[in-house]
Structures are given as C-alpha cells and as structure tokens.
Amino acid sequence: MTIVSFLLILGHPKPNVMNCAQCASFVPCRFECLSPVDISSITKHKRRELFAKGTIIFDEGEMLKGIYCIDSGVIKLSKLSANGKDQIIKLVVAGDFLGCRSVFTKERSTLKAVALSEVSSCYIPKEIFLSAVAHSTNFSQALLRRFSEELIEADNSIVSLGQKSVSQRIASVLLYLKKQIGLNSEGYIAVQLSRSDYANIIGAATESVIRVLADFHRAGLISMQGKNIKIKNVAGLKAKASSVIQ
C-alpha cells in the first residue's frame, strides 16, 4: 500500500496547501497569467485533494461546485455509451484543469472522472476560479487557447476513429502516453492501463487491442509485463502510426 492510500484510509490530515506560485504545475496550468492578488486569493480558498487509484472524482450528472488543478497523476474522462460501455474521451494529466466545462456552462457534468493512478490536486471553488477569469484578460485568453486546442484534439480523434486502423490508433496512443505522461524509473509508460482501457480510448474491441499489442511485441516495438508497456522502438511506432492503410 502506498503512503497516499494509507493516509486516505486513516483520514490523516492532508498536506499543507502550497502557494500556487511555488507549485511545480504553476506554468503549465496557466496561473502564471494571474496577478499576485488573484494568486493569493486562490491559494487562500483552495484545498488539497488526494485521490487513490480507482477513485471516482465525479460522475456523470453531477453538479460541480469547483474545478480541480491537477498537480500529479492521471485521470480518465469517460462517457457511458448506449451499449453500456465507457468510452474514454480524454486523459487528464499534471497541469490540466478538470471540471471547467461544467463550471462555465453551469450544467451537470456529462463525463465521469476516475483516477488511473494516485492523483494530487487542488480544488478551487467555482466563485474563486470565475473571479480570477473575470479579473485577468490574459488568463481568460489562455483558457480559450486551451479550449481551442482541445477542440482540435477532438476533431483529430474523430478523424482517427473513422480513417485509421486499430494498429495505427494504438501506435498513436502509445506515443501520446509517452509524451504526455512520461516513463517510470524502469522505462515503462508511467500509467497502467488495462487492455479494455486502450480499447475504450481508440474505440475498438478488446480482442483487437490484445492482438495488435502482441504483434507490436513480436516486432520488437514494445515489451510488456502485465499492464506495463515499454516502448523499445519509437521510430518504428511512429511509422506504424503514420502508415497508409492498404
């Protein structure tokens, strides 16, 4: 059992809340656009939230009263489809905000957020967050740029689902995880995803994912140990991801 899980079970006091300006995620989360007054206000009103792996942070249909600024860990955002399967929409990593859409639209969440690893975050009440947005043109523009980037990513995902093979999609996802999440001390992708998770990300059958990963392993592109995957040939995976369907 990890120390975070142990503290959560015991109800141990949470770590002291750090000033936002001292946080390692300060630059990627775009709070660098804010004035010292707004940063001080966020620091004063936020609270530290620790989530053990597998924890549901919020569910579909939930009315969110604030946003989460992710300090470390990986979260999956998913939506229940008509056939009862969870379609993974996005992976949220350190430096990202979680819950912005519901806070801005004042509507219930259309997605479910689950911790794929131990997650450390700061919860910011929506009134404080929206006040910072209203006070800073630079901050609001930074958020708009990020939302625009997410729309482009969504467009690319739709194209990928419609035009790319399962092999291309899996290669692309592995490269994305390596870039966005990084590797652990042993060189494996720093988040463990099940074969069904990969299937739900790319919109394919689990059996197809198992087959393609086995093909990649035999070709020397990756190595696998349980849910752990190590990329051994980046150039080879890039070639797979960009190959033309025959």
Task: State the gist of this model.
The chain has 246 residues and is α+β, with helices and mostly antiparallel strands. The protein contains nine helices and ten strands.
From the structure above, extract its key features.
Jelly Rolls; 20% strand; 246 residues; 9 helices; four-stranded antiparallel beta sheet; Arc Repressor Mutant, subunit A; 10 strands; alpha+beta; disordered N terminus; globular; 2 domains
Give the secondary structure arrangement, pairings included.
Layout: H1 3-10, H2 36-45, E1 47-51, E2 56-58, E3 66-72, E4 75-80, E5 86-92, E6 97-98, H3 100-105, E7 112-115, E8 119-125, H4 126-135, H5 137-163, H6 166-180, H7 195-202, H8 206-218, E9 222-225, E10 228-231, H9 234-242
Helix pairs in contact: 2-4, 6-9, 7-8
How would you describe what is shown here?
This protein is an alpha+beta fold. It has two domains: 3-160, Jelly Rolls (Sandwich); 164-242, Arc Repressor Mutant, subunit A (Orthogonal Bundle), CATH 1.10.10.10. Helix content is 43%, strand content 20%. The chain contains nine helices and ten strands. Strands 1-8-3-6 form a four-stranded antiparallel β-sheet. A four-stranded antiparallel β-sheet has the order 2-7-4-5. Strand 4 and strand 5 form a beta hairpin.
